[in-house]
Amino acid sequence: MKKLFAVALALVMLLSVAAFAETANYTGIWYLNEIDFGGTKLAPAAMGMEMTFDLKDDGTVSVTSPDEEGQMKESIGAWTLEGEVLTVTVDDEPMVFSLVDGNLVADSGDGMAMTFGREKVEAEVYVPAEPKADAAEADYAGNWTATQLDMDGMFINPALVGMDTTAVIEGTTITLNGAFLFDNEAFEAELKDGKLVYAANPDEVMVSAISVQALEDGALKLVIGEGENAMCLYLEKAE
Predict the structure, then answer these.
(1) In the chain, what are the domains?
(2) Cα–Cα distance between 160 and 179 in angstroms, integer?
(3) 3-class DSSP state of 180
(4) Half-sphere exposure of residue 228, counting CA atoms within 13 Å on the CB side?
(5) What does the pLDDT read at residue 126?
(6) Which of 3, 17, 64, 192 is most buried when burial is the number of CB atoms within 10 A of its CB?
(7) What are phi and psi of 177, to 5 degrees?
(8) Of 43, 45, 6, residue with least CA distance to 160
(9) Long-range contacts at 54-61 (CB < 8 A, ≥ 24 apart)
(10) Cα 34 to chain center, whole Å?
(11) Which residue, among 33, 53, 58, 61, has the nearest Cα to 45 in the 3D structure?
């Protein structure tokens, strides 16, 4: 009887340790490594959207994320685990995660999913090259596709927000398609100080100005409009 009791006790302890180990696997720091918008996958680190969860053994969680001014802030909440469903609650707003291939995945249900991993995935941040000071017409000629949209210093894929844009440049004629505005619209620009510049006539209201600047790495900087409402895109030559 004593031997049977000892075996049972050992089995209970083993199961308890296994259960604790399974729960403990969720504790620690998790890094936001991917945001999926309807199949379009983005690297948060490249967009200045870094976020971490630090799941504590006592059921609390520390969340580090950027505030409205881009400064990192820490928020404290709680986390619970029911089966394989992890819920993180901060400021009375729960996020529900499931464990997928070793990552924590939160699906918002509206086409967006966020994936957190144990290791931080470093992303390449786009840094525009310097303007090419002695650019000539030949530096602009060809077919171009927008690959980056500048949103106050944060660069994203233009197609993600419906700003996918192409340009065909022949001589000083710029033909644009996309970006909600253009359907193969042609603009007669001038080459000024190495930059293609177009200024609208007073009775033209679609777009006030367009400028295209060749960069040292072979890309183009396209600015549509003026002032605070201007849109800035970076284009690569199409294959």
Answers:
(1) 24-117 (2.40.128.280), 137-237 (2.40.128.20)
(2) 11
(3) coil
(4) 0
(5) 84
(6) 64
(7) -140, 135
(8) 43
(9) 54/28, 54/29, 54/30, 55/26, 55/27, 55/28, 55/29, 55/30, 55/79, 55/88, 56/27, 57/24, 57/27, 61/88, 61/90
(10) 8
(11) 33
Rg of the chain (C-alpha set): 26
Query: How many other C-beta atoms are found inside a 10 Å radius of the C-beta of residue 62?
Result: 15
Q: Phi first, then psi: give them for residue 52, nearest 5 degrees.
A: -135, 150
Phi-psi region of 8 (alpha: psi -120 to 50; beta: other; left: phi over 0): alpha
From 46, 65, 52, select the one nearest 122 (Cα to Cα). 46
- pLDDT tens sequence across 11-49: 333 333 334 334 448 999 999 998 887 777 777 876 667
Going by C-alpha positions, the residue among 90, 68, 94, 65 that lies closest to residue 77 is: 90
Burial of 219 from C-beta contacts in 10 A (0-12 / 13-18 / 19+): buried
* Mean pLDDT score, 113-129: 88
